[in-house]
Design goal:
Blueprint: H1 23-26, H2 40-45, H3 52-63, H4 71-78, H5 85-89, H6 96-110, H7 115-127, H8 131-147, H9 158-168, E1 184-185, E2 193-198, H10 202-206, H11 208-220, E3 223-226, H12 236-240, H13 244-261, E4 265-268, H14 271-278, H15 280-283, H16 291-300, E5 301-303, H17 304-311, E6 323-326, H18 330-333, H19 340-347, E7 353-355, H20 370-373, H21 375-392, E8 396-398, H22 402-414, E9 420-422, H23 424-436
Parallel strand pairs: 2-3, 2-4, 4-5, 6-7, 6-8, 8-9
Antiparallel strand pairs: 1-3
């Protein structure tokens, strides 16, 4: 294939001029196929068009005006997990995630979905980025079986999505009450850093203990921890599903909130959020007011585990005699290229036995809201993940993303497997607590 210019004019393209997939980026793909063994959808579906290079070829064909945004085109774009494993495998450094988000943006503007699917997407994206709405949905989910709401949904495919949504919710006794966090938590000892914590959307409602543990661990390591009240969603769910304009609005609000907080670093304890915020520069590069701000902001974003490893977390841990296995959240290992840091921190805890997980970086099927939009394939990927987790014989599986926690916990519950699912920061916090507990 020629590597020269493809499009002399956008008039022939199936894409419009609003954030189209960039020609320069898709031409970087040399179609070598090294991404194929890393792509979950290709391995599961066995279809070239459901591989990264296949999807890039479709994007190029649409941009050249050789195909339109057809049912088939949309099917293959929708089927992608956006796990970005292909980026890790790619020798040419193709920015596949950016290409896919922009292709999906074109789909959302130019393709007419079935009413049931349109309503499902609208519902999900109008709920999950807003913590108060997530709380309301949690209450509704608790009563859905009693009210028989599932039976009211008759459109094909939608009832399965709502069933998965309900099954994802943890049992009532496993959801802690809201844990209020102070706007500013002082550092223990001499302050070394002033950091801001993104509390997230789903995280703060379903896993408030993760945010609380993150604050404690950061404070133990000399950080003044600031939680800006003005922060909101980071915009990741919108961007992944092609809602680039809403994502940009969330990004601007996030940048402003943390700029006003005057912090040295912005800390994320959710892999998808951290990956998104580090990529604000690409999202806002055409924004004259925020392009430079976004680039500067992204350079200050750190995943919590990455940051603790970077600063040399103090090792005043007590023993945790536990068998633990670690699942690599896609947007941590592939989106942020953070693989060794969480493992090093876990191995530093006395008594903790870290058991490596087979295919640890193979997607669990959560992938943002993929498990709700593509429930059949989401379950297939989950079954493969749970098989590998069970084979470790671990007592705890740990992962650094709330979507992965929800998905894996659901898979374990369905098999009646009593294995805890925790964030690595919770284990670090437990080890610190064990280190100060009085000895009998």
């Amino acid at each position: 294939m020629s590597s020269g210019p493809v499009n002399q004019t956008r008039r022939q393209s199936a894409f419009d001029a609003a954030d189209p997939p960039e020609e320069k980026k898709y031409l970087e793909c040399i179609h070598c196929g090294l991404c194929l063994p890393s792509c979950p959808t290709y391995l599961e579906m066995g279809n070239e068009m459901d591989s990264p290079r296949g999807r890039i070829y479709l994007i190029r064909m649409a941009d050249e005006g050789k195909i339109g945004i057809t049912d088939s085109f949309v099917k293959h774009m929708d089927a992608c997990l956006l796990c970005r494993a292909c980026e890790t495998a790619c020798p040419s450094g193709v920015q596949f995630g950016s290409l896919m988000e922009k292709a999906r943006g074109q789909v959302e503007r130019k393709y007419k979905r079935r009413l049931s699917q349109k309503l499902l997407r609208r519902f999900i994206l109008s709920v999950f980025p807003y913590p108060d709405r997530v709380r309301a949905m949690l209450k509704l989910g608790r009563s859905s079986q009693r009210l028989g709401l599932r039976r009211l949904v008759i459109h094909g495919g939608l009832s399965k999505s709502l069933q998965i949504m309900e099954e994802l919710l943890p049992p009532p006794d496993e959801v802690p009450a809201d844990i209020p966090l102070p706007r500013v938590t002082p550092a223990e000892g001499t302050p070394k850093f002033r950091v801001g914590l993104l509390t997230g959307c789903v995280q703060q409602v379903l896993y408030p203990q993760v945010n609380a543990a993150t604050v404690r661990v950061l404070a133990r390591n000399g950080c003044v921890v600031v939680i800006p009240r003005e922060q909101g969603c980071c915009g990741s769910l919108q961007a992944h599903e092609g809602g680039l304009e809403p994502a940009k609005a969330f990004a601007r609000k996030t940048i402003d909130a943390f700029e006003q907080a005057k912090v040295d670093y912005v800390i994320a304890n959710a892999a998808g959020c951290g990956s998104m915020m580090k990529g604000y520069a690409d999202l806002l590069k055409e924004d004259p007011l925020y392009a430079h701000k976004a680039e500067t902001f992204g350079q200050r974003v750190r995943d919590a585990l990455q940051f603790l490893h970077q600063i040399g977390a103090n090792g005043r841990y007590g023993p945790l005699p536990l068998k633990v296995t670690y699942h690599d959240a896609c947007h941590l290992v592939h989106g942020q290229q953070i693989r060794n840091e969480p493992r090093a921190l876990l191995r530093s805890i006395p008594g903790l036995q870290l058991i490596e997980l087979k295919e640890s970086d193979f997607c669990c099927g959560s992938a943002g809201i993929y498990n709700l939009l593509e429930p059949e394939y989401g379950v297939r990927f989950l079954e493969r993940k749970v098989d590998n987790i069970v084979a470790t014989g671990a007592e705890i599986v740990t992962t650094a993303n709330p979507g992965c926690e929800l998905q894996i916990a659901m898979g374990l519950r369905k098999r009646n497997i009593t294995m805890k699912v925790l964030h690595p920061i919770e284990l670090l916090d437990m080890a610190y607590q064990a280190g100060i507990a009085p000895r009998s």
